[in-house]
Specification:
Layout: H1 2-10, H2 20-41, H3 48-64, E1 90-97, E2 108-116, E3 119-127, E4 133-143, H4 146-164, E5 170-173, H5 176-184, H6 192-206, E6 209-212, H7 219-225, E7 232-235, H8 243-253, E8 258-265
Parallel strand pairs: 2-5, 5-6
Antiparallel strand pairs: 1-8, 2-3, 3-4, 4-7
């Protein structure tokens, strides 16, 4: 039997210790040993087909447990067990992400939106190079999709800047899709297309750049959008804001980062 296994193994160029041609003989021997013990000590009957089924079921369970890797089938792409490979395992790594203050003398606008049970709300804030609040806002948008609400929250923030005569140099949102739509000049469905046009016009008038950031760098706007206030409100002083938003602004001004977990192939 050993010579059969060795000859079968040598028909492949693979030599990894966890290759299927190394694992399978071990599994086969194990189930042969179990069958032999059942026959000798439990009065069971030795059945070749039963051993084959046991081996097949065992490999199938390895696949369901995500314990099989594509590298284990190198040189055996026609093996039917290859279908059990679910893909590469993923490893999660933490990364510190913080809100970056704008350059000295510049202002930065952050906005975000929240849609809960069909109710869309938005919020945002304008801060200076020290992280000091210039103003903040909250607004209900009614029945809107996520992207539409994100765009409306951004538009409200830009309109408030225009009304108050302040010029943001930088604008940040955590919706990559919204940034791509604004920057690309793509045409969307109404009413999103109309709001996008207004956003682009205001950004051009301010000579402001818009960027996508991760939510960890947009925490005060994220919390303000989801805080659950009523109607529309504008805040000129930090003490007017809910405590959960004030604390996030303070942490940003201190440069305290949040932690984001990234997944990567192992």
């Amino acid at each position: 039997m050993a010579s059969v296994f060795i000859a079968w193994f040598l028909t492949s160029d693979a030599s990894a210790k966890n290759h299927i041609r190394v694992i399978l003989p071990i599994v086969v021997c194990w189930f042969i040993w179990l069958a032999r013990n059942r026959e000798r000590f439990q009065g069971g009957r030795w059945e070749v087909n039963g051993i084959i089924r046991d081996v097949d079921n065992f490999i199938d369970q390895l696949g369901k447990a995500n314990r099989l890797r594509r590298s284990q089938f190198r040189g055996d792409a026609d093996c039917e067990w290859l279908r059990l490979v679910r893909g590469h395992p993923r490893r999660r790594s933490p990364c510190a992400i913080a809100w970056n203050k704008p350059p000295c003398g510049k202002l930065k606008l952050n906005s975000d939106a929240s849609v809960i049970q069909g109710k869309a709300t938005g919020g945002g804030l304008l801060r200076d190079y020290q992280g000091k609040l210039i103003f903040a806002f909250y607004k209900e948008f009614g029945d809107q999709g996520v992207l539409e609400a994100e765009c409306m929250a951004l538009l409200v923030g830009l309109q408030l800047c225009h009304q108050r005569g302040v010029v943001p140099s930088l604008v940040e949102v955590d919706s990559k899709a919204l940034v791509q739509l604004v920057v690309s000049g793509a045409v969307a469905k109404w009413p999103l297309c109309n709001n996008l046009r207004k956003v682009r016009c205001l950004l051009e008038g301010f000579s402001a750049a818009i960027y996508h950031v991760f939510r960890e760098a947009n925490v005060p706007a994220d919390r303000l959008a989801a805080v659950g206030l009523m109607g529309s409100q504008v805040f000129d002083q930090g003490h007017q804001l809910p405590a959960i938003v004030r604390s996030a602004i303070l942490l940003d001004s201190w440069g305290v980062p949040g932690v984001r977990w990234f997944s990567e192939d192992v």
